[in-house]
Specification:
Blueprint: E1 4-5, H1 7-16, E2 20-23, H2 35-41, E3 43-44, E4 48-49, H3 69-78, E5 87-90, H4 96-107, E6 113-116, H5 119-125, E7 130-131, E8 152-153, H6 155-164, E9 169-171, H7 175-178, E10 198-199, H8 215-225, E11 234-236, H9 243-252, E12 259-261, H10 264-268
Parallel strand pairs: 1-6, 2-4, 2-5, 5-6, 8-12, 9-10, 9-11, 11-12
Antiparallel strand pairs: 3-7
Domain Rhodanese: 15-132, 169-277
InterPro entries: Rhodanese-like_dom, Rhodanese-like_dom_sf, Thiosulphate_STrfase_CS, TST/MPST-like
Keywords: Repeat, Transferase
C-alpha cells in the first residue's frame, strides 16, 4: 500500500477519472482556528469537508476516538462515497488531520485511499485551482464497512503488549512530552511515556515543507530505532492524531501496516493504574 499522492498526480487524476477529495482539516493542541471556515475560505475544487469530530464516537470521554462501523458507514455514505471510489484526504497544513482521515478509512476497509503529500500548501504552490464557499450537497450512498480490527488497539491491548513485549510502540509526541520534561496540554494527564515505548516525533518523518521524507530515509529512521522489517508497530501520540503520521511513514518505508492506539496518551496518562515512565 503506497499511501501518498503528489499535487501534480492528483491534478491529473481529477481531470481523467472520478476521485473523491476530502479536506480533513482539524485543530491540533495549541492550534486555534475554525476548520470549517478555513474550508469555506479556500479548498481544492470539488472537495468536501471531512469533519473528524463527527467521524468520532460521540459517547466517548476521550478526544475524537473511533466511531462505530455503523456511524462511519452512515457518515461516509452521506458524502456520496462508495467502496469502489478512490478517496484522497488532505488538510490545510498540519499533516496529521489528513493522515487521521486516511487511517480511519483504512481501518474500516476502504482500499483506494491516499493522502495528498504536502497538503493544501503543496496544491497552492502549483497554483492549481481553488474554490470558495460551502461544498455542494451529495446524494447518499449505501456504504459498507469491512473493519480491520487488528489496526486498532485499546487500553487492554496495550497493557498486554507491554507485559508480553509483542510489538514495538512508537510515540509521535515531542521528546519533551515523551520524557516528561513538559506538561501535557490536557488537564489531569500525567507526563511521561509507556514502558518500552520508542520516541519518534512525527515531524522527524517530514521535510521542512511538510512533505514526507523519501522511502529510503524513512526506512533508515525506523531501522535505527531498532525495528525489524517484518514487525508490525503500534503507534501512539496525545490523542490518536499525529500517531497516524507515523502509520503513513511506516507504509511508505515498506513496513507492515501499523496498528494505532486510539486512546493514546490522553487515555493512558489519565488511567490511575497505567505505568508511566519519566526519563527527566
Amino acid at each position: 500500500m503506497f499511501p501518498l499522492i503528489c499535487a501534480e498526480e492528483l491534478k491529473h487524476t481529477i481531470s481523467t477519472s472520478s476521485v473523491r477529495i476530502l479536506d480533513a482539516t482539524a485543530c491540533l493542541p495549541g492550534e486555534n482556528f475554525n476548520p470549517r471556515q478555513h474550508f469555506v475560505d479556500g479548498h481544492i475544487a470539488g472537495s468536501l469537508y471531512f469533519d473528524i469530530e463527527e467521524f468520532s464516537d460521540p459517547d466517548s470521554t476521550l478526544p475524537h476516538t473511533v466511531p462505530t462501523p455503523a456511524r462511519f458507514a452512515s457518515l461516509f455514505g452521506s458524502l456520496g462515497i462508495s467502496a469502489e471510489d478512490t478517496v484522497v484526504f488532505y488538510d490545510q497544513g498540519n499533516v496529521a488531520s489528513a493522515c487521521r482521515g486516511w487511517w480511519l478509512a483504512r481501518l474500516f476497509g476502504h482500499k483506494n485511499v491516499f493522502v495528498l503529500d504536502g497538503g493544501l500548501p503543496a496544491w497552492r504552490s502549483q497554483e492549481f485551482p481553488l474554490e470558495r464557499g460551502a461544498a455542494s450537497k451529495q446524494s447518499n450512498t449505501s456504504y459498507r464497512c469491512k473493519t480491520h480490527y487488528e489496526r486498532l488497539k485499546g487500553l487492554g491491548d496495550m497493557l498486554i503488549n507491554i507485559e508480553q513485549n509483542l510489538h514495538p510502540i512508537l510515540d509521535a509526541r515531542s521528546a519533551e512530552r515523551f520524557f516528561g520534561r513538559a506538561p501535557e496540554p490536557r488537564p489531569g494527564v500525567a507526563s511521561g511515556h509507556m514502558p518500552g515505548a520508542l520516541n519518534l516525533p512525527f515531524k522527524r518523518v517530514l521535510d521542512e515543507s511538510g512533505h514526507f521524507l523519501a522511502p529510503d530515509k524513512l526506512h533508515q529512521i525506523f531501522i535505527e530505532l531498532g525495528m525489524r522489517e517484518d514487525q508490525q508497530a503500534i503507534t501512539t501520540c496525545g490523542s490518536g492524531m499525529t500517531a497516524s503520521v507515523l502509520n503513513i511513514a511506516l507504509c511508505r518505508a515498506g513496513f507492515p501496516e501499523a496498528a494505532l492506539y486510539d486512546g493514546s496518551w490522553a487515555e493512558w496518562g489519565s488511567t490511575p493504574d497505567a505505568p508511566v515512565v519519566k526519563d527527566n
